[in-house]
Amino acid sequence: LLPPLETITPYDRGPAITIVAFVFFFVTLIIVAVKLGTALYSKTVLLSTDAPLWIALIVAFIQSLLTQFAVDHGLGKHSSSLSTADFSKYNKLTYAAQLLLIPVLSLSKVSTCRLIHRLTPGQRIRRANLITMIAVGLWTVFALFATALQCRPHWEYLPSHCVGKGAVNYPIILINIVTDLALVVIPLIMIWSVQMTLQKRLQIIASFSSRLVLTTYLSIIAACMPSVYRILSNLRSGLNGVHLSEIELSTTQGATGSRTESGNQGGSSSRA
Q1: Whole-model pTM above 0.90?
Q2: Domain extent at residue 52
Q3: Is residue 2 in a domain?
Q4: 246 domain-assigned
Q5: Helix (H, G, I), strand (E, B) or coil at 9
Q6: For the chain, N or C: smaller number of CB within 10 Å?
Q7: CB 263 within 8 A of CB 128
């Protein structure tokens, strides 16, 4: 057997970071591939929904590489054991990785916003969704500049050398949470007026709600889940269907001004 590439010790926890980063990358790659395969099978590939996820996956992979390089230069070790050169490189690499986290989160939110827009004709839902998307865009710009410029030198995060001693991170985190909540509440309102069983309603809501506890790679997975949850349930039950049925995606007359009652009977297919 070959010796391990790296070893976790009381003085070096970097290998644990490497394992977590790349395990989540490959899991995310599989989920995104499943979503892409589903879209190709059903001929419903839409760049407005899928492209942000592909870009987010690429950016997240680059972030993982930067994190690995940071591990090579001391991430996970005691700072006192690092040389001046390694400490400087470690700070610059983690600084770059932190900046890349923001577009990953933003792109996954944009993908979810586009999915919600596709699923409902209701003007109120679409208006709330548009406001959320604008908020995500403004948050992205603010978070990038605030994170990039808050400290001197920019790549060394020392509260004593940062604006407000690092307090600028609080609005970044707060707005991120608020937009995630919006991307759960909006689908909840949309789905609750749809005619379907309580179990299916809760499954769809749960697929959107998963983003509340997730970041980076898992935020990409969370953006995929509303589209792929149907596949997972079909695999469990032995069915071959791969689409969300129209009855799961349509809104009622009272909520949106139109009512659609249809299913997947007779070989009909619907958008996912």
Answers
A1: no
A2: 14-267
A3: no
A4: yes
A5: strand
A6: N
A7: no
